[in-house]
Amino acid sequence: MQLSAEGFRSMQAEQMFMKKIQQLLKKTGLQLSLQNAELIALTDGGSDRNFYRIKDGGSSCVVMTSITPRFDIETYISVGMFLFKHGIGVPEIYAHDDEKQVVLLEDLGDNSLLQLLKNAAGGQKIKAYYEQVLASLAEMQMKTKKVLDNCDYLRGRNFGYEAFRWETDYFTECFLKRFCGLAIDNDEELDREFHLLAAGLDSEPRYFMHRDFQSQNIYFKDSKPRFIDFQTATKGLLQYDAVSLLKDAYFKLEENIRDILLAFYLETLESDWGMDIDRESFIRTFHRAGLQRNMQALGAFAYLALDKGKTAFAAHIPNALFYLKDALKQFSEFPLLRELSEQAEIKIQSREL
Length: 353
What we know:
Layout: E1 2-3, H1 11-27, E2 38-42, E3 49-56, E4 59-66, H2 71-85, E5 93-96, E6 102-105, H3 113-119, H4 123-143, H5 152-155, H6 161-179, H7 187-202, E7 207-209, E8 218-221, E9 224-227, E10 234-236, H8 238-246, H9 255-271, H10 279-306, H11 317-328, H12 335-349
Parallel strand pairs: 1-2
Antiparallel strand pairs: 2-3, 3-4, 4-6, 5-6, 7-10, 8-9
């Protein structure tokens, strides 16, 4: 096998890794021979997991490993098998070792939604991609609603008040204080605003929530959307995943296009899945969820840049901050957050990202 990855810490570690792959391949019906195959490192964004493509002629699969405790892999397997069983477009899990440290997955190719959007010729093609993804998102949310507790991992999960407050604390510490260097003089007022936001979102009904439903985690294979990076999935509100996609810092949508796509999503929920939706209330919650999601994204981008040395993520901060400031125009109940966002924008504009 030709190793095209950056390598392993030792020859022994590499040999053990190859041995595990060989053992797993024997459990599958994949027509792959390690003797002449290539092992190609794939990019993995902000994840602590490593991904490799095994390619032998026209056949391929993906190997996933993790440098973190095996819990990360266990949750991926649990959620992935649950979604695949219910006909949701996720990669098939072919096999995994007993220690759950190495997993063989279906190869979804290289056509991420982000790449397709960048290469799209014209707005109609972009709109068509999003409509396919939104229809598949609605399917994932609706088909699994009554069976979420059948997944061992999801049974005890709930993305509610405490999780929302964790995200806003993450935003405050990593982005506002550390990345932007802002001093917050009125902690109690900011806490009150974040409590108000979290309490409102916590009151929404629960569905399957991917939790990182953005263009880098969506692929197209055989012209159909497929989803990855669902290992932090939970039970949560519908709007969080929808806003993660439509207010995605990696690919900025114009407001009029976003409104059209949000209307398409609502029509899909109503016509295909029989939901009775108060559209005005739903859209207001959508934008409140956007505040939450883009604060989480800003915290994550700052953390990855400062603590993980992945400085490329800082380039996405202006888009996420734009979405946050833009949504705040619609709400009068978050004056301090609005003020801090404006101060953060000044700080960001004064530095090169």
